[in-house]
Amino acid sequence: MRCSCGNEELRLEGAVTQRAPSSEEQSASCLRFCGLRQRPVIAGQPRPPECRECGRQTILQGTLRCQCGQRWPIVDGVPSFSSRRFLNTPSNRFQVTETNPRTDPRWEPFVRAHPHASPFHHPGWLRALEEEYGQTRLHLACEGLDGQLLAVLPMFYTRGLPINFGGHVVSRRLASLPRTPVGGVLSRDPEATLALLQTAVDCSRSGAGAQLQIKTEDPGWDGLVHGLSRTSWRPTFVTPLPEKPEHLQFGNSTTRHRLKWAVNKATKLGVRVREAQDESDLRAWYPLYLEVMRQNAVPPRPYRFFEALWKLLRPAGVLRLLLAERHQESRHTLLAGSILLTFGGMACYAFTGGRKQDFAFHPNDLIQWEAIHESCRMGARRYDFGEVPGEHRQLVHFKSKWGAEPTPLYRYYSPLPVAAEASDSQSAGWLRQCVAAGWRQLPLCSTALLGDWIYSYL
Fold first, then answer.
1. With contact defined as beta carbons under 8 Å apart, do 176 and 200 qualify?
2. What's the rounded Cα separation, in Å, for the pair 218 and 161?
3. pLDDT tens digits for range 272-283
């Protein structure tokens, strides 16, 4: 377990213990910290005699305390990390509860150890989403009778847009996760997965009612729960990473030659990549991000969201902002920058910024070269370039040249979205082109304000 402050040395106070029957005696299994002697466990050191006596005791009551001030009571031998229990759990092996990843010390270690973990299940990302618009959270967990997590499902309630958006009427939602590429259930137990999905459907239907939306790469949930339906989404582009950077191969020999040529050219032109060191670098990067989003006719995220990510994920080693600068004598000109999220075995190319007139210096090629190699050194086994809307063929080409292959994504809904009224596809395409052309003429500050307004509903 790990507290949200990063501390793993949780101390036990006011313990009430009971000697276990001899048939239930267990050997001590402390790995990092001994609660009895209140000191770290040293690997390879012989176990003292107290360990055997400790293994004969069952803790009935008490309080777990972290040095940061967090406290969790122990009830019937199980720490109470959750805030609410759902009574309709269809199993005698586990229970479905509501919890808060910010204060639940089990969440981050569980997610980090999961083979399908993503940065978007990290407590820091969830907290940044919460701080962005203050939306109500509903984070579900399935825990065994011993208090250990079997599955988690993070969710937020959204208001929904009062207008048609992207061909659908976007209603009030319970989403996993809003404004995020993927979310969904992380589970070690198929029955626990089913229980969380059923609870999510029930919660979305209760009260005022909200449409449930779950974003995932998992195609296997269709039909598991009555009323939960799967739809296909646009693909994300993923490059598999080897164990060692020297084994990296990008596409065919022609593609690799062109990439090395672009990287060498950028270097000869004085372009260097460095990692951002403080928030002034983040502030300098944000206008470049607005430039890219305006060119792509996509609403940008507000600066406060990136500020929250910087404060919550960078200290945990999850977030890196790579900046490409051109060095000319004593001048350093910022050309481009990209935010990378790395967690578990996944590295995500999440946000980017740059000016079109600087593309001739190949700053993005140099950034990707450094980012992919560094992600490989950090232990990531897949590099996710993210989704590409169908009309952005140049983005498909950029991501494919790094050996990225399309990987299908799915959306699960309960009930299915209400489709907009059918319209002539040619007229709809013309309208989208007009909106995109108008968006590209807006001042950057206007796109930031409009993006903030739009995302407050999503």
1. yes
2. 27
3. 999 999 999 999
Rounded CA-CA distance 394/411 in Å is 25
Which two three-digit tokens encode residue 15? Answer: 């313990």
Are 285 and 225 members of one domain? no
Provide the H-helix boundaries in 213-315.
253-268, 279-295, 303-313
CA–CA distance, 405 with 383 (Å, rounded to integer):
11
Contact (Cβ atoms closer than 8 angstroms) between residue 100 and residue 139? yes
pTM: 0.87
Residue 296 lies in a domain: yes
Please tell me whether residues 111 and 203 are part of one structural domain.
Answer: yes
Which residue has 């372009």 as its token pair? 271
Cα separation, 366 vs 263, whole angstroms: 5
> Residue 10: what are its φ and ψ, rounded to 5°?
-85, 130
Please name the helix (run of DSSP H) or strand (run of DSSP E) that holds residue 408, with its range, or none: strand 405-414
Q: Identity (one letter) of the amino acid at 342? A: T
Domain holding 117, by residue range, is: 83-233+409-420
Cα-based distances in Å from 232 to 3, 153, 175, 229? 37, 20, 16, 10
User: Per DSSP, what are the bridge partners of residue 85?
Assistant: 97
pLDDT band at 7 (very low <50, low <70, confident <90, very high): confident
pLDDT reported for residue 147: 87
Return d(Cα 380, Cα 453) in angstroms, integer.
Answer: 35
The count of other CB atoms within 10 Å of the CB of residue 12 is 16
Specify the CATH number for the domain of residue 125: 3.40.630.30
284 and 433 fall within a common domain = yes
How high is the pLDDT of residue 421? Answer: 47
For residues 290 and 433, membership in a common domain is answered with yes
pLDDT at residue number 21: 65
pLDDT, averaged across the chain: 87
Query: pLDDT tens-digit profile of 121-133?
Result: 999 999 999 999 9
Q: Determine how β-strand 164-165 pairs with β-strand 405-414.
A: unpaired
Residues 283 and 432 in one domain: yes
Work out how many domains the chain is built from and give that number.
Answer: 3
